[in-house]
Amino acid sequence: MRARAGYPSKSLLAILLLAVGIAPLLNYGLSAISDLVITDLGISEAQFGLLATVCFGAAAIGNAAFGRFTDHQPDTRLMVLIFALAALALGLAAIPGGYVLLLIASGLAGVAQSFPNGVTNRVLAQRVPETQRIGWIGIKQSGVQVSQLVASIGFPALAAWIGWHGANAVGAVIAMLVGVLAVRVIKRVPFLPELPLTDQSRSKAPAQDRHRAPSIKFLIWALAAFGFVNGMGVQATNVYLALFAVREFDFSLVMGGMTAAAAGAIGVAARVGWGTMMSKGMAAPPLLLTLAVMALAGAGTFYLAGSTGSAALLWLAVALHGASALGVSVVLMAAVVRSVPPGSMGMASGMVGAGQFGGFTIGPLAMGALVGSPGGFSRGWSAVGGVYLLCVLLAIYLLWRRNRRNNAAAAS
């Protein structure tokens, strides 16, 4: 049954943001207190990186496997899954059960990240008017960076007070409470009315679908590929940023967390800003090229900061990272919502998400191995720079292909 159309309240937007941000809370929280976790568990940097690898590996598999499942489940059921799995992951991390239990918790947190993009994109397509839709994508995708900001400030502070297991317990309680609220909000927001097809539009629809299908298929694969490459650099940086500040600049645990918090805060503003640009009609390829160039500059600045010991360069690198690489997700998801029918939103979002999480899986593990090698962080930042250079080349190709297609359309 379709309810009356209307402009949804900001409570829906807040729930979409929290649905996107709740599952990454464990990973960002552990990253913010990485030095403490490594020391307490007696593990290596590479073993710590494996926690993120397990998390994002589970998310990559889940996004690819559960896309069609998401398309056939009601929004409320998916919201319950997201928040329940996130709460369970945080609850397991609150138990002093050692490294293996923390690996299991990380895997569950990854599974929880299999559903948010699909269901939140579908909610936008089916319940939010078109005039608001793309702008809201930027805000709800900033949920990941809100999570990074909250975890990077909250976990070190809570760990100093009640230990890092206690910090995870607080996160579990919050996830459960917000999950209940999310279901209540979703139930109150009506669907948009379905637009009737005229006889003329019915006759044109099959031809349009045949024309659009190949281009949409290419778009999804291209977005997934860009998300994969960018994702390697994003999480290689996110997971080891606080450790870099503590180890190389002698920052305290709290100040180390503040570097990740600053990246998250800038990432929130960036995602909202890039989402606003997309809502005004800007195409994805030129924006992706801009972000890739900025991210490459950020990787170079991290390298210079480590080489010179300059804290000022460290903060500049943090700002560039937050403004660029962390903003890519909103561009990818806005492109999906623009181009894909609501009935296939879960599958398309899942494919793009799987690409991103595939990159997220590789980045921390590779960075951990490089940081633990004789080359240390210098070798790690060089590798991150190489990843972002590949992003630049891929964005140039996508822009060239788009321009060629537009020129061909204009000529015909």
Automatic annotation (TrEMBL):
Keywords: Membrane, Transmembrane, Transmembrane helix
Major localization class: membrane
SUPFAM superfamilies, sorted: MFS general substrate transporter
Domain Major facilitator superfamily (MFS) profile, first and last residues per copy: 12-403
Cellular localization per UniProt: Cell membrane
Membrane topology: Multi-pass membrane protein
Entries under PROSITE patterns matching the protein: MFS
InterPro entries named in the record: MFS (IPR011701), MFS-Transporter (IPR052952), MFS_dom (IPR020846), MFS_trans_sf (IPR036259)
Coiled coil location: none
Listed transmembrane segments: 47-66, 78-105, 162-183, 218-245, 251-274, 286-306, 312-336, 348-369, 381-400
Protein name per the record: Nitrate/nitrite transporter
Species of the source: Paeniglutamicibacter antarcticus
